[in-house]
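Sequence in, structure out. First:
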Amino acid sequence: MDKSCYRKIHRYKYQLVQDYEIDLGLTGFSVETPYLRLNQDGKMTVRATYAWDGPSGPTFDTPSLMRGSLVHDALYQLLRMEQLPTEQKEFADKLLREICIEDGMNRLIAWIVYQGVKWFGGASAQAGTERPDRIICVPPEK
């Protein structure tokens, strides 16, 4: 009998339906994962099917926060995977604020969002805490 296998995703709420590309200006890194690519020239591609949990903390999933949360979550994932050095957390946090302002968020609210991830986002960016995918097969292997 053939088996069927699927990947159990964790607490994610959103999934990209097409690739998203952004020029981060973060040069000197070359990272390739199944869902993310960061080129030496600073361009990051978040691939279609990438899943993320949207804005975290005491906030709402508003249009002005969604793109920023996507890019921020992708960068934090690279930090957890130790594909970026820990010093890049500050870059990710500031970029979140910039993208939110670009997408129409009030500057004061964007500053509050930035302060939240600056002070309370450390555990989410901590190297070595990336949860591995769980592959489940039915029927289970014996």
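Second:
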Amino acid sequence: MTGLFPQGFGVSAIIGLTEEQVREIIRQTDSRDHPLFVANINAPRQIAISGSIEAMEKALELARHRGARKAVRLGVSVPSHCPLLEPVADSLRAALAGMDLEEPRITYIDNITGRALRDAKTIAADIPEMSLTRFGGTKAP
């Protein structure tokens, strides 16, 4: 991941605004050269954003002006949980496809949906999706 994004990208958290408020901020700060995404909905008023640091700094400032209790950069140096990581997910899918996988001895719990997975193929298909986050990681509509 750091090979694709050696600098200029990261993740931040905004606490105290709704998802729609954060999506509106993303619409105002995202650009082709400085992409920004809603990355994760941790709680109804705790939203992670991911992408370009330049756009993120503008978004954090807007969030503070709009009443966010907290708007901070996190110690993550890559744009996790967003479409920018699709090449990483593709590489992981390819690597997993070439492996002989054994059935798990314990139940694997998907960290996004919380569903229990019990077979190797389903787990292998699930792992690359974690970097993209199925319910976040999207441009604001």
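Remark: Residues 53-65 form the longest helix (13 residues).
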